[in-house]
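Q: I have 102 residues here and want to know how they pack in 3D. Can you give me a structure?
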Amino acid sequence: MAKHEYIKVIIPKKPKGTCLPDDIASDEKERVIEGRGKYAVVLAARFTGAGFETHTSEKATIALARRMRRQGCACEIIDQNGNILTEQDLKSRIKTEDKSDE
């Protein structure tokens, strides 16, 4: 049986009054980003609701982040270690995986 990728990252609470509107960290509470996948697109803390979506694919992650930004939502892409990634970071991972398949 295949092992599923899983992400669980805790974004620590920031000190009161130090958050900027586009921060993914909140000054009210820590945020737990958890689900199946290698990556998460995390909305700025000012947005209500779950505030994130997880993905296993680099391409799907990039597509979601682009769609959210086009809709005017501030967001960041994070990996399983809590690193903030750019689209370029993900694109380079796609190229590396494609080469290893050859």
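Q: Anything worth noting?
A: The chain has one domain: 6-101. The chain has two helices and six strands.
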